[in-house]
């Protein structure tokens, strides 16, 4: 595990409700390693012990904060059946 800085699992309500495995977050020491993994995941499906691994790119903190600011509005629109939730 030469290029991995830290790895940890996260419990999410979505995963628990839908009986999915926990998310695993990985932080790499070098950006080149992260780029290689994202490119290979885009080209072909990655598997570990015959199970498919879904690789998602990290969402920047600024974008997460912006989504959080508008979360009240999203909940209201779902409640009014304007959008699907």
From TrEMBL:
Gene3D superfamilies: L1 transposable element, RRM domain. InterPro entries: L1_RRM_dom. Pfam families: Transposase_22. Residues 4-51 form the L1 transposable element RRM domain. This is L1 transposable element RRM domain-containing protein. The lineage of its organism: Eukaryota, Metazoa, Chordata, Craniata, Vertebrata.
């Amino acid at each position: 595990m030469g290029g991995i800085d830290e790895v940890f699992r996260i419990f999410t309500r979505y995963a628990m409700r839908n009986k999915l495995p926990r998310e695993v977050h990985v932080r790499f020491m070098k950006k080149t390693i992260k780029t290689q993994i994202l490119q290979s995941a885009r080209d072909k499906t990655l598997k570990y012990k015959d199970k498919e691994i879904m690789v998602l790119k990290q969402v920047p903190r600024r974008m997460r904060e912006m989504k959080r600011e508008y979360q009240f509005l999203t909940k209201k629109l779902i409640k009014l059946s304007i959008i699907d939730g």
